[in-house]
Amino acid sequence: MIDNDVNLTVKKFVKGFVYAFNGIRVMLRERNFLVELGMLLITILLGIYFKIDRQDWINIFSVSGLVLGLEAINTSIERLCNLYSIEENAHIKTIKDISAGAVLIASIFAAIIGILIFLPYLLNQ
Fold first, then answer.
1. Of 32, 26, 54, residue with least CA distance to 106
2. Range 30-123: architecture per CATH
3. DSSP character for 24?
4. Can you tell me the distance from the alpha carbon of 67 to that of 110, in angstroms, rounded to the nearest whole number?
5. CA within 13 Å, CB half, 101
6. Could you tell me the pTM of the whole model?
7. In terms of Cα–Cα distance, which of 39, 54, 58 is closest to 108?
């Protein structure tokens, strides 16, 4: 009995990862997500070039994860709203605007953090 429960729990756990990776695969076809991944790649290359310290890497990956995660949530909200109604709807527009605004807020703060990290390196060149 316990073995079956453990097997079922492990299968559900693994299935959860399969669903999550499917979601990431979907996001890899989204323009904004790809732009944000491109910005992360540029930031990583700059970090390697300037040999930034560990705390700077932590800050970069933290804000990048936040931006990419919020983009995925924003995309989910937009698709759910479109599933509900594709007709013009003021309430749905507000929901989508708020969701997109959350990504923008995180992106602005990520850019500020990036400037604070890299500006001293750029000025000392």
1. 32
2. Orthogonal Bundle (1.10)
3. H
4. 8
5. 6
6. 0.89
7. 39
Amino acid at 34: L
Strands (E), 1-125: none
Q: Which pLDDT tens digit goes with each residue over 57-110?
A: 999 999 999 999 999 999 999 999 999 998 999 999 999 999 999 999 999 999
Q: Tokens in use for 36?
A: 């944000």
Sign of CA dihedral 57, 62, 65, 71: negative
Token pair in block for residue 1: 């009995």
Give the largest Cα separation in the chain, rounded: 66
Tally of CB atoms within 10 A around 5: 9
Rg of the chain taking only CA atoms, in angstroms: 19
| C-alpha pair distances (Å), 69 with each of 20, 58, 59, 96 | 12, 16, 15, 16
At CA 15, angle to CA 13 and CA 20, rounded to 5?
A: 100
